[in-house]
Design goal:
Layout lengths: L1 H9 L2 H26 L5 H28 L4 H24 L2 H8 L1 H13 L6 H18 L8 H23 L5 H22 L7 H26 L2 H4 L6 H13 L5 H10 L1
Helix pairs in contact: 2-4, 2-10, 2-12, 3-4, 3-9, 3-10, 4-5, 4-8, 4-9, 5-12, 5-13, 6-7, 6-8, 7-13
Length: about 280
């Protein structure tokens, strides 16, 4: 309706981008609450299967409209490599969200931006200035503060979270390689279809049939993820990345609030300090 679209379009593109990204971060934070709740009884592999298969169903009208010609690719090998890496990262994210406090899992996930610097240099041969290398090094100090290595070692779940961030960094850089010839819809198609196929076998092996409201929650995983992805795409489409990108860090605030409300989690000082350094 005009009474909604009029005021919305009167906002500056950057402000609309900020609102889209903020909405997306809230949706992803809520999705983490759903994952953590279901993770008490349902295996991460089954949750991953629901995430990809439901997302595939939700986006299937778009894929159908594009048609077989629009989805045909000459880069199947690169799609497959990116898919495998992203699936490994997805399992790591699910395990960390289920087993770590939400604020800690979210803060550690931010380290993927630090890893992206290294991956961009290795794969894309990008030039990185001394100032960016310094900022990246300081960011990893924040990661060390959060994981707090000691004589007893490091929490293995924290290592899984960091490994997931690293592999997601690789997967995201591979998207940049694919995007040179592949439109976003085609990348999303092979990502969702491949993910559903990859996790179908492990999900069958670890299968636990959802009961009652759990069916609504597993459906919410696919729905919320799709909504969050659309919000991020719309945000970056209308606003400047340098302005709206940092808004993703507000997810830490929402994760801390939701973690306290639903799971009585209180972030410790090390998590707060480490996250602030990374941000």
């Amino acid at each position: 309706p005009d009474f909604i679209t009029g005021p919305w379009l009167s906002l500056s593109p950057n402000l609309r981008g900020v609102l889209w990204i903020t909405f997306g971060t809230i949706v992803f934070a809520v999705n983490d609450v759903v994952i953590k709740t279901l993770g008490r009884t349902i295996d991460p592999f089954e949750l991953a299967f629901f995430r990809y298969s439901i997302g595939l169903v939700i986006m299937s009208p778009i894929f159908y409209r594009v048609g077989a010609a629009g989805l045909r690719t000459e880069c199947l090998g690169l799609h497959l490599i990116r898919l495998i890496i992203a699936c490994v990262a997805m399992i790591g994210v699910l395990i960390s969200v289920i087993n770590l406090p939400l604020a800690t899992a979210t803060a550690l996930s931010f380290s993927r931006i630090l890893f992206t610097t290294f991956v961009a240099v290795l794969i894309l041969k990008e030039f990185v200035s001394g100032r960016r290398w310094t900022a990246t090094a300081i960011g990893f100090v924040g990661v060390l503060i959060m994981v707090r290595p000691s004589a007893d070692g490091i929490d293995p779940i924290a290592l899984i979270a960091i490994g997931a961030a690293m592999t997601f960094a690789v997967a995201n850089v591979l998207i940049r390689l694919l995007s040179r010839t592949e439109p976003p819809i085609r990348i999303l198609f092979y990502y969702h279809l491949g993910g559903a196929l990859v996790f179908a076998g492990p999900a069958a092996y670890f299968w636990v049939t959802p009961v009652g409201i759990q069916w609504l929650l597993v459906g919410a995983i696919g729905l919320l993820t799709s909504i969050g992805m659309v919000a991020f795409v719309r945000g970056f489409a209308v606003g400047e990345a340098s302005v709206i990108g940092p808004m993703e860090y507000t997810r830490l605030i929402y994760s801390a609030i939701l973690g306290y409300l639903f799971f009585f989690e209180i972030p410790d000082p090390y998590t707060i300090l480490g996250a602030l350094i990374i941000v």
